[in-house]
Amino acid sequence: MELQNDLLIRAAKGEKTERTPVWLMRQAGRILPEYRAVRNSLSGFIELVTTPELAAEVTIQPVDILGVDAAIIFSDILVIPEAMGLKYEMVEKKGPWFPETVNGYDDFNKLRKADVESDLGYVLEAIKITKKELNGRVPLIGFAGAPWTIFCYMIEGQGSKTFSKARRMLYNEPLLADQLLQLITDSTIDYLKAQIAAGADIVQVFDSWAGILPPDHYQKYSMKYIAQICDAIEEVPVTVFAKGAYFARQEMRHLNCQTVGLDWNMDIQESRRLIGENKTLQGNLDPCTLYGSTTEIETATRKMLDGFGPSRHIANLGHGVYPDTDPEKVKVFINTVKEYSAVMHSTSN
Ligand SMILES: Cc1c2[nH]c(c1CCC(=O)O)Cc1[nH]c(c(CCC(=O)O)c1C)Cc1[nH]c(c(CCC(=O)O)c1C)Cc1[nH]c(c(C)c1CCC(=O)O)C2
């Protein structure tokens, strides 16, 4: 199926585009009343994730309602630990919770590499349905958590400000940490490859807890495994989003990925200088900007677009959109990117 709108894919590959493509991390869900209507008719988040027809429906909602240039498959990064043997729950208004965690070799030895077809078939099915229903309108983004971020949840069993239990293991049991990170990495590579075979046009690796590691540990326990993933995926472009990893930008230049995501703390010009000309940059408006007035959003979005310039940029927020954001304000952001970047591109050619 040929894509009618392939701006995102061309921008990721560094090809010329008529304007800057735009989508939002966490666009599927939460902010849309249409999502909440589907969600409230079910027992919970996990039922939605594991019901392919409904996951496909909420994946496509932001394409129809917001006008974004890509869909991102509705799922969660935590399906990988589940497939490895740690079931998760999603506690209303609190977030993920794992009844069992990894404390030592006894727990590790009970884990397995994810068997993607049998354990994660529901995600692959959702991708196939979504691709069919999208009918080439926009590309579909597949995704997974970075091994380090998944490791954090498998050790702690829930969110944490410091993830000190997970970080403690890097000091006390570095060999176990490496073995667990490798098992997550191997599972993730199979998973992303299966997503691509099912139809994902590009994949993104979310390292949401990158920013809590010291730089040497980040290289050793996160980037090393992300690099394995990037090297293994040759079929489609790969985006690496490492939230808070400003200190690792120079090394990101050597990753075998096409796109690097920036959070809103990262200066655009400095990031371009450190990461180099051979990567597309994605981001990085402060999600709180969308609480501002229409004029403030327009001004901030134009400033961001001027900062990145017309080539090798995918417009996005610097992290996921916050749940209480007004969808109308999201549209102001999206429409400003579309209109202003079209002018930028036409004057630069
Ligand atoms: C760290 C992380 C998680 N999940 C994810 C990350 C990495 C991205 C990031 O840093 O934000 C990734 C994720 N989670 C979800 C998606 C869907 C696609 C999208 O729109 O981006 C994606 C890409 C659905 C979801 N995942 C979750 C929801 C809300 C649950 C609900 O609808 O009840 C959705 C729509 C739940 C979730 N899942 C997770 C947490 C901490 C929570 C609770 C807090 C929250 O809501 O963000 C783990």
Q: What order do the strands of the largest sheet run in, or round the barrel if closed?
A: 1-4-5-6-7-8-9
The number of helical segments is 16
Bound molecules: coproporphyrinogen III
**Alpha-carbon Rg, integer:** 19 Å
Question: How is the quaternary structure best described?
Answer: single chain
Query: What helical percentage do the residues reach?
Result: 40-55%
Shape: globular
Please give the largest β-sheet. Answer: 7 strands, parallel
Low-confidence stretches: none
What's the topology here?
Layout lengths: L6 H7 L19 H8 L4 H5 L2 H15 L4 E2 L6 H6 L4 E3 L3 E3 L7 H4 L7 H4 L1 H14 L5 E6 L1 H10 L7 H9 L1 H25 L3 E6 L7 H18 L5 E5 L6 H4 L6 E3 L6 H8 L4 E6 L8 H15 L4 E5 L9 H22 L1
Parallel strand pairs: 1-4, 4-5, 5-6, 6-7, 7-8, 8-9
Antiparallel strand pairs: 2-3
Bound molecules: coproporphyrinogen III.
Coproporphyrinogen III (CP3) binds next to strand 3.
Describe what this molecule looks like in 3D.
Helices cover 50% and strands 11% of the residues. It has 349 residues and is α/β, with parallel strands linked by helices. It has a single domain (7-284, 310-323), classed as Alpha-Beta Barrel (TIM Barrel). The strands form two sheets. It has a seven-stranded parallel beta sheet, with helices on both faces. Strands 2-3 form a two-stranded antiparallel ribbon. Strand 5 (202-207), helix 12 and strand 6 form a beta-alpha-beta unit. Helix 9 crosses helix 11 (174-198). It is globular and about 60 Å long.
